[in-house]
Amino acid sequence: MNNEIITHKFKELLLPTILIAMALNISSIVDSSFVANFIGHNGQAALQVLEPLVLLISIFEWLFGLGGQILSLNKKSEFDEDGSNHYFTTAMLTTIIVSILIILVCVLFEDALIAILHPPSPDLIPYVKSFAKYLFISFPIVTIMGVFAQFIRVDGQPNLSSAVIIIANIVNIILDYVFLGVFHMGIDGASLATLIGYIVGSICTLKYLFSSKRTFKFTLSKLKIKSWLTSSAEIIKIGLPGASMGIFDVILVYVMNLIIGAALGELGLDIYNVCVNGLLIISILVIGFAETLSSIVPIYYSQNDFYNLKHIVRKSITVTLLCSLAFTVILLIYPDILLIFFKLHQMPNDSLVETAIRLFSLAFVPMAFSTMLIFYYEGIERTIESGILSVISTLLGPLLFTFILYPFMGVSCVWISFMLGYILSIVVVVCYVRIVERKDSEYSGIFFIKKGLIEKTRNYTLKSKNDNEKTEMFNHLESLNVDPSSSETLNKLINMIFDSNDENVSIEILVIDYGDKITVNMKDEGKKEVIENIKKTFSQDNVKVSEVLGLNNIEYTINEVKD
Fold this sequence. Notes:
The protein has 18 helices and 7 strands. By secondary structure, it is of the alpha+beta class.
């Protein structure tokens, strides 16, 4: 079996997904570094005070971008273009409305929001207000751009999605230096750089609207208020487990800010800010892999292609765990590599700072595994399992262990509570999955692979009309007593794909025997006009076609099997 197409598609989507994950994260990291070096530690502490709000905004990208994307892709894989466009339109309309509400709340209730965030010292309030001035304006722009980029990424234009994020961040980084290092504008210069960067990035997304290659279309004229509300609720339901990570992060960071600020003052917030940024650095990679997985999983899982699914899930988890482990080892050996970046390596309490970084870095590996599972479960619409992981790993676990261990370890328990929280979430969800397995014998393992279909499934990759695997596939169909006329139709389909692409294409074919019928699903990265030719040539009663993730997706259903 060859996993060429799914591996290539995963690699194609991975870079833009990582770049999208960088959108607000890299801004936070760069802003923190520039502010620490040009403004000082009061400025850095002010950024940590505002961190709950920054995390809150990232929720909507996952909620509407990820939830809408999964439902739209599911409809595409089911050959329902109207349904796919409906969810795309709903997701974007809801995002725009929410973005308008965000800017109204931030502008009208600025003082109340800052008071709720509770800066530990009155000296920090001017820094917080200055940075918030442009940050609040950037929130709706970042939200709309983030959700829109998610759809661009999975609509066969990952390079455009990448370019949008790259441009936004390059502009932000350059202007950070210009405003802070050259013009000495103060902390508000950092937030102005972020605002301008994302305005430029948003303008770049408009290229997608004029692209002839895009398959997601706005269907506002067909959207009724009732269907919009119902579909928005569906999108939120699917996107909530991933988004709940952000919701719980907001609550957790807020509570930890209060605990650490009360115990260590501005120094504590500086340390926590560095820890959070360290987590953000490795999270960019982890979230990139996890969101890429959640884009591919719905398609292959809905079509019961567990061969390809197991291959890509195993590779993704292995890579993220190894990278997380490497980053942990680096920080355990030399925590100053992170502290130098944020100008904390020469603090009076240097040993306290280094201990905090070392203990906090132990959370990276379990965080990577927990996050990959959360997004995988979202992709297969197992909201209970992903919800369990989210609530324990990003809220209840760390808070529980902080309050239990605080009398014995003091503030040091905060740094180790994150690792313990992630481990607890994994243990609980594994136990829950075992219970589900006993009640429903159809599924096996934590990835919910359907037992009965594994033996009835064959996967082939054809590189030419005369490929040996093609002969092997037809021999298998003959063993299933497939009528010769059905095999002849399938052969014509395959030959049309190769002929239309001048043999310069590979076809990934999945054959599943359901007993009463046999489905043959074909995917290729060839010319898109082939889909239209197949529509005209073959009966749509048993041949369905669509374009999904930039792939030609063709399903041939064989209903007549000889006795």
